[in-house]
Amino acid sequence: MVNYVERKRYFDKIDALMEGLDQPYLMQEFMDHSWRLEDQLYREILRRSNRAVVERIYQLENEQQDYREFIEGWIHEVKLPITGIRLACHNQEQDNSRRIERYLTELDNDVEQALFYARSDQVYKDYIIKETELEAVILNVLKKNKYLMIQNQMSAKVECDRITVFSDGKWLEFILGQILLNAMKYKNENGGMISFQAETINSGIKLTVRDNGIGIPEGDKARIFEKGFTGSNGRNRGKSTGIGLYLCKKLCNKLGLEISAQSQEGEFTEVILLFPKHSFLSKLKG
């Protein structure tokens, strides 16, 4: 009976220790010494097992780091010939130049998406938060995609009235670019319109990006920011990878922004970005 009580107290103490540790896999380092040989053997087995797990985690992290560096390096390499071809287009016939520019823009957007995807877990290494004029960022996005917009018969309207936000202009440009590309994918057959409207509200700056495309079916609305979700629109048009809006959501979370969407099927889709007025810096996540 005495032995049972002692053993129960011993294991209760281990349970309590486990609950209180931030890194429970290091539990054996904090366990009290036991005079029992059996306990000592268990503790040694735990130590060796955990050491193997930690070494495996380090190995996977190193492999992931190598992969990420390779992807980033490859993307920078492939962007050089894209830039070269674009410059060469300026000396070609107008129709051919526009066609090549359109393909280059599509390729450039795909490469950019791969680059931001590779970096999306380490935003803290690559952002510069500063006062940024929304209109300038939006005009850069429209300029970059002008040939795609012409091809898709898309027009744009910008109403930002010199409103500024504190954010990273490059990351914000990528997010708005993905929203624009989505609007073009899901436009009506005869073209479409996309508008960017910024306004000051009590909690910060609200940017509404609205298109008059085919909208989102009611059953798909709750899942549009999920990774790999293409929805019925994506399956019908065969152009969706389910990555664009997922990346937008992920990057907004990292940058301390809120993103949401609302839509009426057959009428419109609105993507809303909220730049908080206060404490946005404290929300930055590594």
What's the short story on this structure?
With 286 residues, the protein is α+β, with helices and mostly antiparallel strands. The protein has helices at residues 2-20, 37-89, 94-119, 134-144, 146-151, 169-185, 231-237, 244-255, and strands at 130-133, 154-159, 164-167, 192-201, 204-211, 258-264, 268-276.
Mean pLDDT figure:
85
Q: Helical segment tally?
A: 8
Largest sheet: 5 strands, mixed
* Fraction of residues in β-strands: 15-25%
Strand pairing plus helix content: what structural class?
A: alpha+beta
Q: Tell me the radius of gyration.
A: 26 Å
Reading side by side through the largest sheet, how are the strands ordered?
2-4-5-7-6
Q: Strand-and-helix sequence, N→C? A: HHHEHHEEHEEHHEE
C-alpha termini separation = 53 Å
Cα shape: elongated
- Share of helical residues: 40-55%
- Identify low-pLDDT runs: none
How many beta-strand segments?
7
